[in-house]
Specification:
This protein is mainly α. Strand 1, helix 1 and strand 2 form a beta-alpha-beta unit. The chain is built from 18 helices and five strands.
Length: 400
């Protein structure tokens, strides 16, 4: 049984904006004090689409990581690293490639979608097809079971689980496994052993999923077994195989509802974002110029917050009382849009002030970001090497 471990990554996109903060970063920061967390810059992933513009990758990496730290990721509480300095990711990606059917990759919905979206670029490359495989390796090389991601990554997590399952199915055979499992069952003791057997039968003969669940719980709670024995008996339930690579689960982060200044999704590439580094005066200028409900062409026209991008900011930044004030004032034309925007401007600036102060501190220390990444990479290499030893061994590669 492997312990809970969180892993997530972002492609290096340079400065973070408040959509990244409320969509992903705040969640990462909350998790770092709850579980063992690994967060990384997916710079190889950036090259799958950005292969013709290599100069931006390194620069974006340092900008992004400085923003992560400024936002509150703490290198004493989590491991922050750079993918391209942990070669175990590439090795596992290569090895998993041996057992990944092409059809699985071709059917991942983002494959066709992205090719259509970025149609000015040739994405009929081997690297781009392998994107979800590389992502699978990123996760599995840590044996991470919890992966905080947005809705758009669910199909990638799905293929990760399939690849892990296939790996365990092909390589999870241990000589003498059945005999050992029977011995471990005996160690459960008479009554529990009987229950375990009957749940196992109910699952294998009738596909009773509830029985499988009960049997797992029974094994996990059994005081008479070691962890290795527990793991074996759980594997035995579904086909006498051992779990070398656990199947990861998505920890779904609700997609940030923040709308950008022009009414489209907030995104760096649309140029409609408010950066974490945005100076206070610029926040004010941008929000004051932000689109509102088009029905409020004149101050005296009533509007509807549900049709207004500014409302998405109130949803993040305002308490119930202020939201009620907006609703009432907007729908009755009791307040003007600039009046409505003012508290949001203040709330954003209040949130950004300490973040910006930390970013300034971080960037005043030469090489601080690099040092954080170096230490993170060292730790990441150590953890992933443990998995790789098991993987190489399971796949029958010689040891020297
Ligand atoms: N594909 C992710 C994105 O575009 C980034 C990523 C790469 C990732 N590897 C990962 C996320 C592993 C979670 C786990 O946002
Ligand atoms: Fe939007 Fe506020 Fe103007 Fe209503 S009053 S349209 S919610 S900015």
């Amino acid at each position: 049984m492997f312990k809970d471990r969180v892993l997530s990554g972002m492609r290096p996109t340079g400065y973070m904006h408040i959509g990244h903060y409320h969509g992903a970063l705040k969640n990462w920061i909350a998790l770092q004090s709850q579980m063992e967390c690994f967060y990384f810059v997916a710079d190889w992933h950036a090259l799958t689409t950005n292969y013709d513009d290599p100069r931006v990758v390194a620069k974006s990496t340092f900008e992004m990581v400085a923003d992560w730290l400024g936002a509150g990721l703490n290198p004493d509480q989590c491991t922050i690293f750079l993918q391209s300095q942990v070669p175990q990711h590439a090795e596992l990606s290569l090895l998993l490639g041996m057992i990944t059917p092409l059809g699985w990759l071709e059917r991942v919905p983002t494959y066709k979608e992205q090719q259509d979206n970025l149609n000015e670029k040739d994405l009929t490359t081997y690297g781009f097809l392998g994107y979800p495989l590389m992502q699978t390796a990123d996760i599995i090389v840590y044996r991470a079971n919890k992966v905080p991601v947005g809705e758009d990554q669910v199909s990638h997590l799905e293929i990760s689980r399939e690849i892990a399952r296939r790996f365990n199915h092909i390589y999870g055979r241990e000589p003498g496994f059945e005999e050992k499992a029977v011995l471990a069952t005996k160690k459960l003791g008479g009554k529990l052993a009987k229950e375990y057997e009957s749940f196992k039968t109910a699952y294998n003969q009738d596909g009773n999923a509830e029985a499988l669940d009960k049997a797992k719980k029974l094994v996990v709670a059994a005081g008479s077994l070691s962890n290795a024995e527990k793991e074996m008996l759980v594997g035995f339930l579904t086909g006498a195989r051992k779990t070398i690579l656990p199947e990861p689960q998505a920890l779904l982060t609700p997609t940030s509802k923040l709308i950008g200044l022009d009414g489209r999704k907030m995104s760096k590439s649309y140029g409609n974002a408010i950066d974490l580094r945005e100076p206070a005066a610029s926040v004010e200028k941008k929000v004051r110029a932000m689109k509102t409900d088009p029905k409020r062409a004149r101050r005296t026209d009533p509007g509807n917050p549900d049709d207004c991008p500014v409302w998405t900011l109130h949803e993040v930044y305002s308490d119930d009382a202020r939201k009620a004030w907006v609703r009432e004032g907007c729908t009755t034309a009791g307040i003007g849009c600039l009046e409505c925007k003012q508290p949001v401007i203040e709330a954003i600036n209040a949130e950004l002030a300490p973040i910006q102060a930390r970013i300034a501190e971080i960037e005043a220390k030469p090489d601080y970001v690099k040092d954080v990444l170096r230490a993170g990479c060292a730790r990441a290499r150590e953890v992933t090497e443990t998995t790789m030893r098991d993987v190489r061994d399971a796949m029958g590669l010689a040891e020297l």
